[in-house]
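Collaborator request, handled under Task 6.
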Amino acid sequence: MFHRVPRSAVALALVLTSAGVLSLSACSDSPIDAAAPGDPIGASRSSLTAAERRGRAALIRDAAAARGLEQGWLLAGIADAETGMSQCWSELTWACMGPASADCGGGPVVAGAGDGACSLRQGGLGMFQFDAGTFDDTLAREGDRVLTISGNTDAAVDFVIAMVIRSVYVAGVDNAAQALEWMNGVRIDNDRFMPWIQTVTHYYNGCTPTGCGVYDARYASYSSHARDTYAEMGADFWATSVDYAATFVSQTFPLAAAPFELTPGAEMSGSIVLRNSGAATWQPGVTLLGTTGPRDVASPLAGPDWLSTSRAASVDHAVPPGETGTFAFTVRAPAVAGDYPQYFNLVQEGGAWFSDQGGPSDMQLQVRVTVAGTALPIDAGAIDAGTAGDVDAGSVVRPRADDVGGCSIATGATTRAGETYAALFVFALGALAARKRRQRADRSAAC
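Structure tokens returned to the collaborator:
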């Protein structure tokens, strides 16, 4: 739950006092005296039945999904740790009474009492225990939305996005879109699960590894609530309607800003690594990298290892949700000089294109090859020295500026190799013409 400072400040942890009253105990830069190691973070005696918990979890899941957070169990685990997923005082009657809410049948929302007696009307509000000081302070900062289940969840999405951006445990996240993408890749015990629990413990609860005497207990509590809430409802319950989705991770092909020039017929091997951010497992021979722009177009860059001219590669192994898969393939430069951008997307063979569900778009993943030009044979003897400089040296098509950027696998940049070869060719023609003029002059002098 959150203390009476802006969202960037630490959150407060919910603990049950020996008197059975919901209390809030801050875990900041020094150990807490009010809570001993192992004390529960949140309410352990919610009156919600199993069916009511499932209904509440569904509301959290759907409200999170509406904001682009597909892993609703991440939030449900926090809400379970804080209040047992209780939004209303009637579900947690040993807590304080907050303002009235339509979601509570006109009754009060659940409120904490970390700043004193319930009569002071201070403490966190709702499932996620938002707290800016007094109830009025919290409503002024968050709005009345925190009094409803969907609004309290919406505010929680805002907070976890901000904390993931700030987190020292998460790398490469600088904005809301990246934060959502990162959270959508969290799965139980994958490489993002521990950083998620560390982030929650540190930034949501305010308990740091070096400044909080109960850090291990808090970490273990958030971890177990996340695991238990996920397992209680089951994987199918938490799965969104998007079966097929992928997010870019890395590539070995040069980026758009780096030259990627090949001579006609030359080949280059590389790979694209993508994370499975959907609900279905990718399978070799079924999850393929197909050509787009338009879809299924026969690519001029098709190499010898392509499955077909419109299918560059298959995923290298079975990839469950949250894990990464590699698509390795070779590009071969066409025989004709020019610029060859090729777009790709994942396709479930016999099923759906990923861009029709969870993305990426058909114009995001790109390999771009520039093929250097070669001069056409010209009869040098037919060129007069006075016109040699007028020979069209030819040119190489350059990449468009609007094709560069993003996480596209865009390869190739402006190259001047074609102009260099042409200039040398023109110089040679000029030298040959000058030699002919000297020969004619020598013959005239001899006569």
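The cover message to the collaborator said: "Residues 12-238 form one domain. The chain is about 30% helix and 15% strand. Please let us know whether this matches your experimental observations."
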